[in-house]
Write a structure and sequence with these properties.
Cytochrome Bc1 Complex, Chain A, domain 1; five-stranded mixed β-sheet; two-stranded antiparallel sheet; disordered C terminus
């Protein structure tokens, strides 16, 4: 509570609760002990507007360093990402791109066949990334080198051009849709469905204020299922998706290279930083008179209110904002 009070100011917040619990008492506790301490700013100073800054147009390349320990492998260990901006897509379109990535991820997909012809025998993934400020569609290659960057870019563009022109095999299309449908059925039978869906529901709500995510998901799945029974020339949905990825508003090709020894250097800097912070806290008298950290007493305070709630309770709270 102290850390949240000192370092957090919410611009908005979504809490997902599920399970056998006394919801009224849980919500009253959260409001009394936490949420009421963070009223909405009267001056409209919310930082949520940062999420709406438009992306910078164009294509760019970069090479970034990644911490690795001394003795770690430096060659054939890089991760190459090709990211394509999808900031102009609505939620249903993003779900369609997510389903499209499942088609590309299949071992028999045009992406993997083209990559092999380009001499890329690496693990390659296609996926939708919604954890950034703006959603992007990513193609990722593992355990490569800087020299694989251009070949990955060429393989991706050739794949998208092929899908735009010819579509994909109807057999592959139907197999992927059937596999996805079966996976959904199994997930719905799981005991942790609320936890599984909370992150995506929360992201959608934080950006739109709406809670109809599953209705959009079912509609997108139905569109794919319908098109899976058509011939190649009638696959307008995936051909349009491929066309949009061929001409993105913004794109970036990044090689993340491990640097052996950098991990120890950063750990040393972190240790020095924590020591300095500890010295500052000690001088401010944050320790108890006995010289012990007050954590045990805080834990004892928690034992007082924890029994108020059912032992079966489950919950997840996900803040949004800064």
């Amino acid at each position: 509570m102290r850390v949240l009070t000192e370092f957090y100011t919410y611009s908005n917040c979504l809490i997902v609760l599920y399970g056998d619990m006394d919801y009224g008492r849980v919500l009253s506790f959260l409001d009394r002990e936490h949420l009421s301490l963070h009223p909405a700013p009267l001056n409209g100073g919310s930082l949520i507007s940062l999420l709406r800054e438009p992306p910078i147009p164009g294509f760019r390349c970069s090479i970034e360093e990644s911490p690795a320990y001394s003795g770690s492998r430096g060659s054939q260990a890089s991760v190459i990402d090709y990211a394509l901006d999808l900031s102009d897509c609505d939620e249903e379109e993003l779900i369609c791109f997510d389903l499209f990535s499942d088609l590309l991820d299949h071992s028999a997909s045009p992406l993997h066949q083209t990559a092999k012809r380009e001499g890329l025998n690496h693990v390659i993934q296609a996926f939708l990334d919604t954890l950034l400020i703006h959603p992007v569609f990513k193609f990722r290659l593992y355990n490569g080198d800087e020299g694989d960057r251009d070949r990955l870019l060429r393989a991706v563009r050739m794949t998208l051009e092929e899908i735009c022109e010819k579509g994909i095999s109807p057999e592959l299309y139907r197999a992927c849709v059937k596999e996805h449908s079966l996976t959904d059925r199994l997930v719905r039978e799981g005991v942790h469905l609320g936890c599984h869906a909370a992150e995506e529901i929360g992201r959608y709500w934080s950006l739109t204020g709406k809670t109809d995510y599953f209705a959009l998901y079912e509609r997108a799945c139905a569109r794919f299922a319908e098109e899976a029974n058509k011939d190649r020339q009638s696959q307008t949905l995936i051909r349009n998706l491929a066309q949009r990825l061929l001409k993105p508003f913004a794109g970036a090709l990044t090689v993340t290279v491990p640097v052996p020894g950098l991990a120890e250097q950063l750990e040393s800097q972190r240790s020095s930083f924590l020591e300095r912070k500890k010295d500052v806290h000690d001088r401010r008298g944050n320790l108890l008179p006995c010289g012990c950290h007050p954590l045990p007493s805080r834990l004892e305070q928690q034992r007082v209110w924890l029994p108020q709630f059912s032992h079966k309770s489950q919950g997840s709270s996900r803040p949004f904002g800064t």
